Amino acid sequence: MLNRFFGSNAHTYLHLFGLSGIAIGIPLNKVVMSIGMMFVVLNLILEGNFKNYYQNLKTNKAYLFILGFFLLHVFSILWSSNFEYYIDDLRVKLPLLVLPTVIVAKPILKDLHIKIILWCFTISTLLISLINFLSYQQVFAERVYQDVRGMSLFSSHIRLSIIISMVIIILITFLRKKNIRLNTLLTIFIAWLMFYTIYSQVLSGIITLFAGLSIYTIIRLWNTRKWMLIPFFSISLFSIIYLLVWMFSPVEISKKDYLDIDLKTINGNEYVHVFKYISPVNNQPTHLYICNPEIHQNWSHYSEIPIDSLDKKGQPIKETLIRYLFSKNLRKDSVGLTQLSQTDVRRIEQGETNVHEKGFISRLYGVKYQIINSSDPNGHSLLQRMEFWKNGWQIFSKNIIIGVGSGDVQDEFNKQYTLNNSKLRVENRKRAHNYFLTILLTFGVIGFIYFVWMIAYFIRFNFQNTTMIGLLFMVIFLASFLVEDTIETQTGVTFFGLFYGLYSLKRERKKA
Predict the structure, then answer these.
(1) Domain locations in the chain?
(2) Which of 69, 320, 369, 507 has its CA 20 to 30 A from that of 245?
């Protein structure tokens, strides 16, 4: 329609404008994403080239796969009972249908147009990461943060970490041998985003970035220096095994080494000595020299958060205090409390448990502490996930063939938690946080096989067309699926739908 008034390419440029807006909105907020989707749909309707749309859609196998996957959600109402939850789930999953549909119906075939969308996505992410970091450093205004993972102001820190992994991959593929100025700029961007990923301590971001960079390196070595593949595999495998062995190695202590410890404080009050909690930093028990009366009596002099309450990470603040005092080699009594500075108290309130280790190393030690002291999963991301996975697998084992349907997932989790007398508090009783497991328990083995088939076809399609970004996009999402329900939020679904649609198209080019 608009071509008559503004030229033959009016709808093409509007289409590009709308998709670029969606790309900007993915790391920004849901409103921009939603407006962008409504814009591209309206543009297609106004153009009205429905016969051509239909022809493009029916001949694109990758699109037919994603259409079938969405229809699987639609038809699961036949074996779901919670209609309200089912409708809400379909609403969230709608971009999974809309974006591939509009992109495949009106294909983006020019390499320049693809790069415009990718640059919009990249620049938006770069700006948001910079705003987040400067805000966290109190440059703009004073703001209270629970911890560094709350640094993400515009979207979930987990989703943003996965988005940043994708942007790093995009920037790497933009590097060109003979363009020194461009390469310098791109290298600065890549270094900044890698720093941000490490600084933010989001393990999902570390996992997805590692997966994306590893596959990229393997592909590059295969094409250029095959002899380096064996050393690369060896170093990578050794590093992963070493980290896992260190992480999951049990730590044991002997009480005989602690026979001469003091039994009373300087004030004559009795100490409590508990040996079952062990620090992964020095393999020493963290809960020695605890005087509960002195802690309860004196903590209110230092902090407004009651000692029997939670810190800003949702952990019992008393446990945070005990571990923090241990890291400073202080006893957990009135004397130990007097050695805390205002900075120490603020860090304890924010949920920091170690005065020495910071950043990503601190995060690793925190995860290991969870593993070797696993009596209470609440407030510990890994232990909570292990509880999610255990209950999710039990739900699947009772609904193997077709699952429970998209409407009943949370209801079934609630029932299973109750049945198992789970230690998780009600507010922590969430879904699987593993998308492979989510597919299994939602649609059973039949749905899972279809899902794997869809992903395998997409990977094969991009591999055959040597489309590096499309291939690594799926690698990053597959890595995220191990620890997150990535396609269960609007940001995740829109992110997946946009890139799935863009890289379902066969273009006559070598890279994009």
Answers:
(1) 139-249, 255-372
(2) 320
